From TrEMBL:
Swiss-Prot/TrEMBL keywords: DNA-binding, Transcription, Transcription regulation
Stored Gene3D superfamilies: Winged helix-like DNA-binding domain superfamily/Winged helix DNA-binding domain
Domain of life: Bacteria
Keyword Transit peptide assigned: no
InterPro entries, per the entry: Bact_HTH_transcr_reg (IPR050679), Tscrpt_reg_HTH_GntR (IPR000524), WH-like_DNA-bd_sf (IPR036388), WH_DNA-bd_sf (IPR036390)
Name recorded for this polypeptide: GntR family transcriptional regulator
Length: 287
């Protein structure tokens, strides 16, 4: 199916390829930041799909800001996790931290983010591990705090009203798609009995996030500042909008903090305060 013939793979194959490529970029080992994805023909052969499917996947990943596609140069990864950690090696992948958290009998995960895009990819990876019998959490409690759809973001703008409206519609579409995906995958885990207790709550807050925050099992915090940049964005119809004021989260790096037995250690104080910070707007400011 990799000979350039029309696409008959359907939505399921498209989602499978897109999910796997996101996972590889999130892992940061196979496709690190700044590296190039294999050529379209090679990807089509590897996944057993048509080149049309690969092209649609690459267009979607470019729309989401994972890659930049340049004619004649290929697809370059522009988003990938760089986690700075107090571990002995000094570095750790975001995927490894999520995997460790989901390896516990009870998983609690609080997330404040601009979209649920990368979170969706991580949860789907853990769901695959659960289905494969690699892990067996008994309870998953996930709270996601996202900006209200009515918030006027200072980014995703060009200064041209018509283009800005299209960019906002694209942003809302990405957020809605990934939050619905989260609901679906976690509901399936509960419905099939693979995870006896699943609690997913998504709330909106009238704030434009300046950083991304993950709180894992009450003992770890990941914080990443959104870096403002200008870049090109490809729209769903294939049009490229140049000079879009946007933010990058994963590309700017994440800082890992760990709560330990020392009451006044830097890690303990930061994780404790970050949890208090998350709880306060969650209870008082969200919709």
């Amino acid at each position: 199916m990799s000979d350039g013939t029309p696409d008959y793979d359907g939505g399921r194959e498209f989602e499978r390829v897109a999910r796997e490529l996101r996972a590889r970029m999130l892992d940061g080992r196979r496709y690190p930041h700044g590296s190039f994805l294999p050529p379209q023909r090679a990807l089509a052969a590897e996944f057993g799909v048509s080149r049309d499917t690969v092209q649609r996947v690459l267009r979607e990943l470019a729309n989401e800001g994972w890659i930049e596609v340049r004619q004649g140069s290929g697809a370059r990864v522009v988003r990938s996790p760089q986690v700075h950690s107090p571990t002995s090696s000094g570095t750790v992948t975001l995927r490894a931290l999520i995997e460790d958290a989901f390896g516990q009998p009870e998983v609690t995960l609080d997330v404040f983010t601009l979209t649920s895009e990368s979170l969706d990819a991580h949860i789907r990876m853990q769901a695959e591990r659960i289905r494969a019998g690699e892990i067996a959490p008994q309870r998953i409690a996930l709270r996601v705090m996202l900006p209200s759809e009515s918030v006027e973001l200072p980014y995703l703008r060009t200064g041209q009203p018509a283009q800005d409206e299209r960019l906002k519609a694209r942003f809302l579409s990405i957020t809605r798609r990934h939050t619905e995906s989260l609901r679906t995958v976690l509901s399936d885990l509960r419905a099939t009995g693979l995870v006896p207790s699943v609690d997913l709550r998504i709330r909106r807050i009238r704030v434009a996030p300046q950083s991304k925050v993950y709180l894992l099992n009450g003992t770890e915090a990941l914080v990443g500042l959104y870096t403002v940049c200008r870049r090109s964005i490809m729209m769903e119809d294939g049009e490229v909008i140049e000079g879009v004021l946007d933010v990058q989260g994963l590309g700017a790096g994440l800082t890992h903090h760990v709560k330990d037995a020392e009451l006044h250690s830097q890690g303990t104080v930061l994780v404790t305060n970050m949890q208090k910070w998350f709880d306060s707007p969650w209870e008082l400011l969200t919709e």
